[in-house]
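FIELD: query
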Amino acid sequence: MYLDLLTNLTLVDHSVWASPEVLELAARKNKRGGGALLFGGICCLLVVALIVLGVYLLMKRKKQ
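FIELD: result
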């Protein structure tokens, strides 16, 4: 466990976080991640719509 902490010690160094390379990589990663969030949101809305439609159809069927 301690060996793992020592090998990842550079991740804790604040000068590594603020380096231009790290900031550039973070900016690139944020640009690519927007499409997945949109796709996930649309999928969630479709699932909710299907559930509401299913409940509506079951209630309508139960009344008949």
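FIELD: remark
Helices lie at 2-7, 14-17, 20-32, 34-63.
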